[in-house]
Every structure is written in structure tokens, then in C-alpha cells.
Amino acid sequence: MQSNTLNFVFGLTIGLVFAYVGISYMTGPPTPWPTQMRYVATEDQETKLRSPLRSFLTHEDLEKIRAIVQPIEFMDAHVHNDDDKEARRLEKEIRVLCWVMTSPENLESKAKHVRSTWARRCNKLLFISSVTNKTFPAIGIDVPEGRDHLTAKTMKAFKYIYEHHMDDADWFMKADDDTYVILENLRYFLSSQNTNEPIYFGHHFKTIVKQGYFSGGAGYVLSKESMRRFGAHGSNETVCRQDGGAEDAEFGKCMENLGVKVGNSTDKLGRSRFHCFDPDTHLMGGYPDWYYQYDAHGAKKGRESISDYAISFHYVPVDKMYAMEFYIYHLRPYGIESGKQELNQGRSS
Ligand SMILES: *[C@@H]1O[C@H](CO)[C@@H](O)[C@H](O)[C@H]1NC(C)=O
Ligand SMILES: *[C@@H]1O[C@H](CO)[C@@H](O)[C@H](O)[C@H]1NC(C)=O
Ligand SMILES: *[C@@H]1O[C@H](CO)[C@@H](O)[C@H](O)[C@H]1NC(C)=O
């Protein structure tokens, strides 16, 4: 008897939610609804769901995060009443173009989730692949797929951006489709930097290139002057290798040859902002051997080594991207207001 009542209440709740979803869907939400709404249900609830409207929900997106019903959450509608004036001011002042290196087979499995999470906060967002997809949309540049051609992909992507999007941003960030970027912290850091200087920032590796270079997976961000220099001389093969080698190291050589300096992005307490591994690895250590030879800042680990205003992490799988969104933009310890730390800006060295 009691379990029948529970079932009824459960069924009614699900029914109402579906009706709501159905109506929202039919009346046309402002953006495609899967990116705007999320549904969270336990596996148990999921198996209980039997509804003709279920077909609306069997979206790859939602399957990935095992998302189905309750509670409906509008990802942009913060219930926190956070004071985000400063972030919104910086969003206008420090315009960041993000380009995400992806591939045809990763569009649906990875790139789509990048777009649904951190990358929607970029002022301008481009997905660059080897094949054009007008519906996604992804920009196809004329390179074969595969690890051997990542250098060409990067060179041609920056060339494309130089030719088509120079006026759209003040800074130009390259990321992979498994990079996670906290745009607010990126803009905060860049607000003390000069985009008319030939400089770029990222996770600093000290090998191979004289001044070192930045890890490709942690993402790196170029000033406008760096873009201008790249646009002027980046296609010259004696200055920049056009394909082959390791993408990030080759790009680092190219930058060095163009007189673009590697910038210092560690904060006043010596903590890192760009990260070539996922948060857990930087917190716990357990680095691969090569990292001790490569890392320019002594392969530190632990909470004290990571800036509270960290900018990027790498090797973040799809479900963790949604988890990061939750921890960074949603979860709050009640009764504690985030106090602004003394400005720990890193200055270019
Ligand atoms: C292009 O993108 C759309 C939307 O993400 C996707 O459904 C479609 O499968 C893609 N087409 C190809 C050929 O990859
Ligand atoms: C390419 O760069 C080299 C070295 O700076 C220079 O000598 C050469 O003239 C450049 N070639 C072109 C076509 O600009
Ligand atoms: C990098 O910048 C920080 C913050 O300004 C500073 O404390 C640190 O000494 C700098 N590191 C180098 C190598 O210049």
C-alpha cells in the first residue's frame, strides 16, 4: 500500500517534469535545450522511467552524465545571488578567443561537452578540426588527422584565426578537447598583462627550446602582438616548422624565433595557474618520470602549489568536466563568503 503510494507520487513527479520538459521543448527554448538544462537521476530512478517522452531524453549528452530527471537546473541561472560584477567587467575588458583543437570523431564525444561547459564563457569560440562541419559548427582546415600532423593543425589554425578573427579578441587561447579552462581566472591574470607585448603564457616546460615552451594540453594564450608576429612570419619554414615533431615544442620554437617570450604565470606565492594534468594528479603527485625533467617549476604537488586562481587543467574527461562545473560554479559552503585574496598577479619576467 505504502509503496504503491510512493510509486504513484514518484510517477506523478516524473510525469510533471516530463510535461514541463515537453512544453519547454515545444515552445522553443532560446538555445538547444540539452545544453541549457540538465537532469540528474540515480541509476535506480533511471531504470524506473517509462514514458513516451523518454525519447526526448535519450540524448548522448545526457547519457554520458547519466542524467535524466530531477531536479531541473538551468545551468546559467545561479541561485546563489553571487556578486559577479568584477567577472562581468573583465569579460568585456579582456576579450578572449578560445580555439579548441578537435577532430571529426571527437565532435560528439568530447567537443560538444567542452562547448556545454567551460568554453561557453569565451568571448569567441572556435572548434578547429580537419573536416568542416557546418552544423556543429567546426572549422575544417586542410590537414590529415593524426598525432603526426598536430603541428600543421596548430600552425594552420593560428593562421586562420589571424586572417579571420584578429579583431574579435585581445588574447588568443589554444586548448584541446580535454582541457578545462576557468575563464574568469584567465581574464583576471591577463588583466595585469600587456597584449601589445610579444608574450604568451601556459604551463612551462624547460626542455627542447632554449627559453622553454608551453604544454599543449594545458593550453596556452597568446597576446595580440604574438599573433601579429605569427601572422607576419609564421608561414616561413625557416622560422616555424609547418608540420611534424611535437606540436607544443615546435610551436615553442616558432614563438622563440619570432621573439615572443614565455611569460611567468605563477602567482606571488609561487603557485601554478596552468596545469598539464588533471586536478587530482597535481594535488596528489604521482607524476610520470618525464615530468621531473620537463617541469620548469620543480614538479611541485599539493594544494599549496596550485593557485587559488588556477586557470587550466588537462586530461579532464567528459564527466569530470561537468563535475568541475559543479564544484567551481555551484557548490558553496554556506555562511562563507569568498574573500578576495591579495592580488597575486604574476608579472612577465
Ligand atoms: C556534424 O555535427 C552534427 C552536430 O553536432 C552531428 O550531429 C553530425 O554527426 C556531424 N557530422 C559529421 C559528418 O560528423
Ligand atoms: C624566412 O626567414 C629567414 C630567416 O629569418 C629569412 O632569411 C628569409 O628571407 C625568410 N623568407 C621569406 C620568404 O620571408
Ligand atoms: C613569477 O612571478 C611571481 C609573481 O609576480 C614572482 O613572485 C616570481 O618570482 C616570478 N618568477 C620568476 C621566475 O620570475
From the alpha carbons, calculate the radius of gyration and give it in angstroms: 22 Å
**Can you tell me the CATH architecture of the largest domain?**
Alpha-Beta Complex
First-last Cα distance: 73 Å
Mean model confidence by pLDDT: 82
Unreliable residue stretches: 15-59, 64-75, 344-349
Q: Helix-strand pattern, N to C? A: HHEHHEHEHEEHEEHEEEEHHEHHEH
Q: Would you tell me which CATH topology of the largest domain applies?
A: Spore Coat Polysaccharide Biosynthesis Protein SpsA, Chain A
User: What number of structural domains do the residues give?
Assistant: 2
Give your account of this protein's structure:
The structure is a single chain. The chain is of the alpha/beta class. The protein has two domains: 2-69, no CATH class; 85-329, Spore Coat Polysaccharide Biosynthesis Protein SpsA, Chain A (Alpha-Beta Complex), CATH 3.90.550. It has 13 helices and 13 strands. A seven-stranded mixed beta sheet has the order 5-4-3-6-11-8-12. Strands 1-2 form a two-stranded antiparallel sheet. β3 (96-101), α6 (107-116) and β4 (124-129) form a beta-alpha-beta unit. Residues 264, 266-268, 346-347, 349 line the site of one 2-acetamido-2-deoxy-beta-D-glucopyranose. It holds the Pfam family Fringe. One of its GO terms (molecular function) is manganese ion binding.
